[in-house]
């Protein structure tokens, strides 16, 4: 497929409006920000890799690269988890894959609808026009509702237009959780948290995790991270419940997260303790009639916060938002 066809196809797929800020009427006037520098991949096991973003937030200096793509090299080809948040990042990931294998990319999986986890689809469709891109139905819905433009505009604003030229490229195949995919010699098990009491939510209602059983690796997207950034789409009770479940289920596994360093199930344990410390205290102080503003210093005095969470990026700036979200969830849980 040539570039003209590709752009036309994308226009049909997402509606021409998505293209207007990025492309002039004549495709020769395409404005595309320069490539981003290589970030070397880290090998987790024989088949599994990830590319660790050093920064916790998008900036002009990091070209908006602040979440960790991963890839699995199977006998049949490469499976990419998290294609990055721009065409430039997607192309950088492809260059790192090329250093490891010359096998084609045969599958892309988007773990949820936050833009840093799927806008790089563009680069993979350009390189492999027929590549299947999987995501949860809730990711499809959010992209249909405009998540692509929302995140692109945000990234362009905070990176000084380093993601310019990225075309909103939605996934094209559905995973709901529970599937077992066979890619050459490698089995992939797909996990989605399901508990209607908490709207099936952990970090969002669309989270997918990808388990590679023969490598004892699980790519967890954003369901757990040592970073305080965005609780608005998630559930405190869903997160606590999921973390308790998955600590048992994935004992002995290495977790490759969407943000921060890989680790064992201690990553799930820390996430559980962080969310539980906030939730339990919000419940207690809400009943005592305290405002979120008054709760904050009391929660910050908890040992887990002082000893562990206070070292995470975003603690000073974003903890208050987490407490507000917990208060809202607590209020709605009473009806
Ligand atoms: Zn996210």
Description:
With 335 residues, the protein is α/β, with parallel strands linked by helices. The chain has 2 domains: 3-272, 4-Layer Sandwich (Metallo-beta-lactamase, Chain A); 273-333, no CATH class. It is built from 10 helices and 12 strands. It has helices spanning 3-14, 87-100, 121-127, 137-144, 147-159, 236-249, 266-287, 292-300, 303-307, 315-333; strands at residues 42-43, 48-50, 70-73, 78-81, 105-109, 133-135, 173-174, 180-183, 186-191, 209-212, 217-221, 254-257. The strands form 2 sheets. The protein has a 7-stranded mixed β-sheet. A 5-stranded mixed β-sheet has the order 8-9-10-11-12, with no helix packed on it. Helix 2 packs across helix 3 (121-127), helix 6 packs antiparallel against helix 7 (266-287) and helix 8 packs across helix 10 (315-333). The chain is globular. The relative contact order is 0.12. It binds zinc ion. Residues 112, 114, 203, 222, 230 line the site of zinc ion. Belongs to the metallo-beta-lactamase superfamily. Class-B beta-lactamase family.
């Amino acid at each position: 497929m040539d570039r003209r066809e590709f752009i036309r196809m994308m226009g049909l797929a997402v509606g021409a409006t998505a293209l207007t800020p990025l492309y002039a009427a004549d495709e020769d006037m395409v404005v595309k920000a320069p490539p981003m520098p290589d970030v070397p991949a880290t090998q987790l096991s024989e088949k599994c890799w990830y590319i660790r973003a050093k920064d916790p937030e998008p900036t002009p200096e990091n070209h908006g690269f602040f979440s960790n793509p991963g890839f699995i090299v199977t006998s049949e080809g490469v499976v990419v988890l998290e294609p990055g948040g721009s065409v430039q990042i997607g192309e950088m990931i492809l260059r790192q894959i090329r250093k490891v294998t010359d096998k084609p990319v045969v599958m892309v999986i988007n773990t949820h609808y936050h833009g840093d986890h799927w806008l790089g689809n563009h680069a993979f469709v350009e390189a492999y026009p027929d590549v299947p891109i999987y995501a949860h139905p809730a990711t499809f819905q959010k992209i249909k509702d405009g998540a692509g433009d929302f995140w692109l505009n945000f990234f362009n604003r905070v990176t000084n237009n380093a993601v310019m030229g990225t075309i909103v490229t939605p996934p094209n195949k559905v995973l709901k959780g529970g599937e077992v995919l066979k890619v050459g010699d490698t089995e992939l098990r797909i996990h989605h948290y399901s508990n209607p009491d908490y709207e099936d939510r952990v970090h969002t209602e669309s989270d997918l995790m990808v388990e590679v059983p023969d490598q004892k690796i699980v790519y967890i997207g954003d369901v757990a991270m040592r970073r305080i950034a965005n609780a608005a789409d998630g559930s405190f009770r869903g997160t606590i419940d999921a973390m308790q479940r998955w600590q048992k289920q994935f004992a002995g596994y290495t977790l490759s997260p969407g943000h921060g360093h890989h680790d064992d199930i201690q990553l799930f344990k820390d996430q559980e303790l962080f969310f539980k410390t906030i939730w339990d205290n919000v419940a207690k102080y809400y009943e005592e009639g305290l405002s979120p503003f008054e709760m904050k210093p009391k929660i910050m005095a908890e040992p887990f916060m002082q000893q562990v969470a206070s070292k995470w990026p975003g603690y000073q700036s974003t903890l208050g938002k987490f407490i507000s979200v917990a208060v809202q969830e607590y209020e709605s849980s009473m009806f």
